[in-house]
Amino acid sequence: MPFKAEYIWVDGTQPTAKLRSKTKIVDDGADLPIWGFDGSSTNQAPGDKSDCVLNPVLSCPDPIRGGDNVLVMCEVLLIDGTPHPTNTRAACTALASQYEDQEPIFGIEQEYTFFKDGRPYGFPVGGGYPAPQGGYYCGVGADEVFGREIVEKHMDACLTAGLHLSGINAEVMPGQWEFQIGPVAAPRVADELWVARWLLYRIAEEFGIAATLDPKPVKGDWNGAGAHTNFSTNAMRSGYDAIITACEALGKRVPEHIAGYGAGIEHRLTGMHETAPWSEYSYGVSDRGASVRIPWQVEKDGKGYIEDRRPNANCDPYVTTALIIETCCSALAQP
Ligand code: ADP
Ligand code: MN
Ligand code: MN
Ligand code: MN
Fold first, then answer.
1. Which residues partner with 230 through β-bridges?
2. Which of 136, 220, 315, 326 has the lowest tally of Cβ within 10 angstroms?
3. Measured between alpha carbons, how far is 251 from 258 in angstroms, rounded to an integer?
4. Domains of the chain with bracketed CATH
5. What integer is the mean pLDDT of 138-167?
6. For ligand 1, is residue 183 a contact (CB within 6 Å)?
7. pTM of the model as a whole
8. Please, which residues bridge with residue 5 across strands?
């Protein structure tokens, strides 16, 4: 029996790329071939040179269709086989292999917000606002959390697909949730995060609900949505000096990191709502108002990992992980 392969890729939409996918029927036993698409419909090519190439980089069981069907995460290539300008994975892969000996790994906390009928899911149907933040984070009960049926289905789907999902929780604003992928090396952690995002959109679609990665879905006194990126190298997992070296290194390339951490970051990193201002860098133990947090357990153990709290929910994890590797691993490589 032939099987269905859902080819998934990141498009060229600016300033925030979207996911696209289409289905290929593949003969039983055949390898997953490279494939193509119309780049003029995805902001990836002009109409007269519209062909772009899909190159599979990760395939996994398709938890939605089941059976022998698969999801296929792809990178986009030009017809000459080189990376397309929108292919941010290529640079991530190069940096990861350059610093492979340091064994960098990442755990990414993906926050997101459900929307129904143009409002965050759980906001009053007649308009206006729900009770202020306070009881929703990790809440329980129909008056506190909204959309758990989708969250549970998404969690099961990620596990069936074999993704390294490490947990989920309800977030600070109604309709806002989080899942975590990792710890895994780049670029795999980013491949898996893109597949997990695709599954989230796809499963929420069946409920008539849109999952969005808008970094500040509701203006005012409501938390934004981030993608806290937890990071360690072999040296950081072995001693505290390397933890400090990484924190200091991140403070020396602030504009580069902010520019790569997702569109609209200045609306989220205001210095309020558990954020540090985007223009000022700080790090600290247990400090959720710092740019980078050293978990208390890491200080106590004298080793472990750090949490860069700045990346937006709508960041490209190929870009964020590449920036962190470039900045921290080059600093840690110095004798
Ligand atoms: P928070 O307390 O900030 O909400 P979470 O539990 O949501 O933290 O996420 C922490 C993430 O850090 C998880 O994805 C976890 O896998 C990851 N993590 C744990 N240890 C390491 C490590 N040594 N290096 C990188 N990531 C790690
Ligand atoms: Mn978290
Ligand atoms: Mn969170
Ligand atoms: Mn966090």
1. 107, 307
2. 220
3. 11
4. 3-87 (3.10.20.70), 103-333 (3.30.590.10)
5. 97
6. yes
7. 0.98
8. 24, 70
